[in-house]
Structure formats: structure tokens, C-alpha cells
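Q: what does this look like with adenosine-5'-triphosphate bound?
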Amino acid sequence: MALTVCDLQPRFPPSLRHKQSLSNARYVTFHFTLNRNLHLPLSPFLPTGSRLGDRRFHPVKFTSVDGLSIQNNPEHRELQQAHQNEELRERLRSLFETFRSILPGGSWWNLSGEYVDVVTASKPVTVWRALRRMWQLVANDRWVIFTAFSALILAAISEISIPHFLTASVFSAQSGDVMVFRRNVFLLVLFCVVSGICSGLRGCCFGIANMILVKRMRETLYSALLFQDISFFDTATVGELTSRLGADCQQVSRVIGNDLNLISRNVLQATGALIYLLILSWPLGLCTLAICSALAVILLRYGQYQKKSAKLTQELTATANEIAQETISLMRTVRVYGTEELELGRYKLWLEKLASISLRQSGAYGFWNLSFNTLYHSAQVVAVLIGGMSILAGRLTAEQLTKFILYGEWLIYSTWWVGDNISSLMQSVGASEKVFQLMDLMPSNQFISEGLKFQRLTGNIDFMNVSFYYPSRATVPVLQNVNLSMTPDEVVAIVGLSGSGKSTLVNLLLRLYEPTDELVLLQILIDGFPLKELDIKWLRERVGFVGQEPRLFRTDISSNIKYGCPRDVQQEDVELAAKEAFAHDFITSLPNGYKTVVDDDLLSGGQKQRIAIARAILRDPVILILDEATSALDAESEHNVKGVLRSVRNDSRTKRTVIVIAHRLSTIQAADRIVVMEGGQIVEIGSHRELLLKNGLYARLTRIQADAIA
Ligand SMILES: Nc1ncnc2c1ncn2[C@@H]1O[C@H](COP(=O)(O)OP(=O)(O)OP(=O)(O)O)[C@@H](O)[C@H]1O
């Protein structure tokens, strides 16, 4: 194991500072937390005697001097004793520090220090703002909310009346007043029935409102994400976004169905109980109110803490998801490089952080419960004490005190419920911050305005002095002053070293990236019109694209070939396209033929490319872009497929504009023109023969590839 000097953190008792034996020592042994002993010269670590007692030196124990163990050497026994004393003091100090830190307000509860790195700069959402946003989402179905709240009010009034009639019934029976007893029992039964029915209705309506909220929230969020620029997906990860759509939306959904429902019910009941208590006995009522106010202050602090911890939990969950998603999607690489343990460790690290937050949340919940219980029992003791004295003084009857105790209990419990649900509400509001932030993202510029659509697209393409850099790397120019024109019926091949900007050129043509400099979109012309002015959906319907690593959806082969096809197609069309892409034979050899469900992992690279090529052929595009689209095909298939791609289009009997990006230079020799790129610039243009005669980069690359084959 390699250890650097930074790893060496010796620990010396202060008393060693003056020991001649140590000052003269040349070698010391350090016992590491790694359970390894290392003999090292003392001097580099102890340049002056004053460093010996430095408390920053923690995890390493000083065990011997010049090879003599401190334990066995009488000369050093005193040093050992001092060392042990110091260790004990250190332990006690750390125990005391730990105890102090876990008391309310202590450093252990601080969430912003250790985890500050995961808290993103999302705009804090206040409870009102979050509720307003939620209301906007469910406003169309406001009748559900209104019904729910009406039922809630009726249920609360009924429930709060029950203890009164319960006590009144008992005491009227005791007094022998039959009429009053009958009336009280009748009202008691009535309120019980109303409370039961209304509670059921309330629960059902709030449940429906909840479902509507989650659905709309997910719809809005998903639609906001789908219309983002591709550069957004370069920075946001799949794990994070799916976490927002899944867990965070679910958490936010508790607001209506659970939190608001229970908060409203309990606030109503607590208010009713308080009024009743004040009417019964105002001194007793004020005492109970004081206890409830203390409870409310504690619950407010607790709620704020829960909001903060919920936000952290949400961020940590998203990061853990991100890691799991990345590892699972790269499982083959993980397996080949044997990094399962490493990946497990990476995941566990975030789980531990999550657990640590949960621990604090549970601790805070414990403190909250402790406060509640203490205050609850204090209220009972106060009621019995003051109430009992009032009975003795003849100012209160036993019936009144019984009612008081019942309603006092009700008030405290309602306050507790409100607190509990406010903390849950705060958690949901905390979780909503990132969700609302994503929901507020404006769609990419290309979806905002509707552009031009022509009767017919011809397929003329012009790049006029185009320079471009990716938004995520604003200082690195990827394309510089690119001038290039392509005409219909032409096959243009783009070649060049890796990273020279070939794919970027077609990314811009497909408008996958919105350049920060809008001029770029005016410098790319399609049939003489700037790309910026064209309707992008209309244009994309007329473009076929096969990328370097085609991805398939987890559905049957037929649907994968039909995917995104702008016209109605029959199964025969699908099979024809598959035949032209030389995919038909392997598809029919699969167990369910065209109905075989595939995904990215169930087919070979070449088979996936053939399906992607069939998809492009089926669209019958005016402009066809092949970015390393046949790299995984065998030579014969590649030759045949290329022929088909150049062939006559179905409708207009004209050829299409074909752009081919290829590294295998032998496959593009027949192209009408070959464009050679280097460092984001076009350095050569011409036919295969012309470029060979030029003896430039293309000729050099061709020679290198020929040598490699030879
Ligand atoms: N999304 C992106 N964000 C930032 N930089 C990018 C992005 N995509 C590509 N680049 C950078 O732009 C440069 C050109 O990349 P591009 O993919 O166009 O090269 P290429 O010639 O197609 O390479 P290859 O032949 O390997 O596919 C590279 O330096 C690359 O790192």
C-alpha cells in the first residue's frame, strides 16, 4: 500500500514534548488506523519540539522509538501512561462534544454543512406559492375540492359536537331528566352519523383531487422536459429526471390528499374546542391556550427543519438514482472491468448520506413527540388542578370539568395533528421546489413559433460561413467558418479525424442544438431559406437520420421500423423497407418475426443498424443523413444498402440529398463529393480521385487505412 506523507498523522501526548529520549530518537513507529506499522525517520515529521503535542495528529498512534516498544521499555513506560491519559481525556472530550451536538440546536442537526454540495440553486418555494401552483393544476376540477372542503366542514362540526352531547347524555341520565336525555342521545346519534358520512365523502374527494394533482403534475413536467433543447439533456441526467417525475411528484401529491385535508380538519376542530373551552372557563381556557402556543412554536421550528431535510433527501435520492441508473445501463462495462464492488460502494455512499438525513429526521420527530407528550400531560395536570380547585370553590360543576378535560384533550391532539401535517406539508413543499423549477422551463425556441412549410422540399443545403460552439463549452469553437453547399441528387461524404466536427455539422442541420449565436441559424439555408424560419417539425418529417449507435425502443420490430413515420404505412411497406435495408432475413428468422419485442440489448450492432436504416427508408426522406450508419455492417451488406439509399425516391422519381459520414474511407469512394474536415474546418473538397491527386489529408488517411488492411 502506498502511503504519502499526508497520511501520516502521528499522535503524541503533550508530555512527550520535553522528553529527551524522544528528541534524540531517529526512528519512530506509527501505528496506522489501517492496522499497519511503518518505520520512518522522525525528523521530517517533527521539525521542532513544539509540534509533538499537536492535536491535529489524530488517527495514528505512536508505539515505539528506535525499535523499542513503548510497552516493554521501562524508559518509555511513563510516556505510555501519559499517552493513555491523553487518550482517555480525548475520548471524554469527544463524548461530551457528541452529546452537546445532539442537543436541540447542536451542530449534529445542521444540514447545510456536510451536504451543501447536493443542494442545488433552486428558487425556494414558499408554502403559499406552492399551494397556488397546485391550485392552478387542479383548478379545472375545482368541484372536487369544494365538495371535499364542504364535507370536511360538516364532519368537523359534527365531530367537535360529539363530546358535548356525550357528556350531556351521561349527566342528564344521572340527573334523571328523561326528556333532556332523549334529546341529547338523539343529537349524539345524529352527529355521529353525519360525521361518518361526511368523513367518508371528504376522504374520497381529497383522494380524487390528489390523483388529479399527481397526474397533471407529471404531465406538465414531462411535457416541459420533452420540449427542452438537446443541450439540456447533456447536463441533466436520466436518473435525476426520472426521480423528479416519480418520487418527487408522489411526495408533492400528499399535499392535497393528506396534509391540507388533515390540517384544515384539525384547525377547525381546534378552533371549535378552544372557543368552547373559553366559554366554559376562561382561566382554564387561557392555560390550555398557552400550552398549545408553546406546542405551535415547537412545531413551527420542526416543520422548517423537515422542509429543509426533505429537500436534501430529494437531492440525495436523485443522486443515488442517477448512480444506479448509470451503473445498470452500463452493466456490460461494469462486468467486463469487474467494478461491481466499486459501483456498490459508490451507491452505498449516497445511501449512507440518505440514512444520515433520515436519522436526523427521526431524531427531530422524537424530540417533537417528547415535547408533545410533556405538554399534553401538563395540560391535563393543569386542568385537574385548577378545575378541581374551581369545583371546591363552587365555581365549576363536575360535568363542566369533564367536558373541559375532553375538549382540552381534543384541542391538544388537534394541535399535534396540525403540527404533524404541517411538517409533512413542509416536506412536500421542499420536494416541490425542483419539480416547479423544471416545470417552469421554457420550451426550446424551435417549438415556440411556427415556421415556414413549403409545398415541396427539394433538398438544397447551404452552410454559409458557419461557426459554432456547444453551449456547455462556450470557449471551445467546434466549427469555424464552414462553407458548404449540397444539391439534390448528390451524395456528399464527410470525413476527417475523430472530433473534427462532422457530427456537429449534421446536429446543426437537424437543429438539435440551439446555437447561442442566432446568426448560425440564418447561415444554414435549406432550399434557400434560413433554418430558423422553417417549421422544424415539417422539416424533420422530410429528413431521414441514422446515427452512430441507433437505439431501439422496447417494442416489436415492426413498430420500431414505423417509429415516427409521418405517413400511414401498411405492414407490406414495413417489410419492403426491411428488405431494402437487408434486415428482412434476420427478422423473419426471429421467433416472432416482425412481432418480436426487441430493445437495445437484444440485437447485434449490425442488426440494430439495419432496423434504423429500414426506419429511414420507410420515411422516404428528401434529405438522408447517415452518421457512421453502416459501420457495423459486413462489407457486402454495406455495399448493397448504400446502393438502396441512393436510389430513386418513391413519390417524385428524383434522387435524394445524401450526407454520409464515414471513417471507413473505402466505403465513400463513390460519393459525388468528399468533404474533409480538420479541427472544425473544411480543409479539402473533391472527388476521391481529385483528393488523392491533391495528396493532402484525405490521401494521407487513405494510405494509412490501406496500410492497416495490408
Ligand atoms: N454535446 C456536446 N457538448 C460539448 N461538446 C461536444 C458535444 N458534442 C461534441 N462535442 C465536442 O465537439 C467536437 C466535435 O465533435 P463531433 O462529434 O462533431 O466530432 P466528429 O468529427 O463527429 O467525431 P467522431 O468521428 O468521433 O464522431 C469534439 O471536440 C467534441 O468533444
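The longest strand covers residues 461-468. Confidence is low (pLDDT under 50) at residues 1-62.
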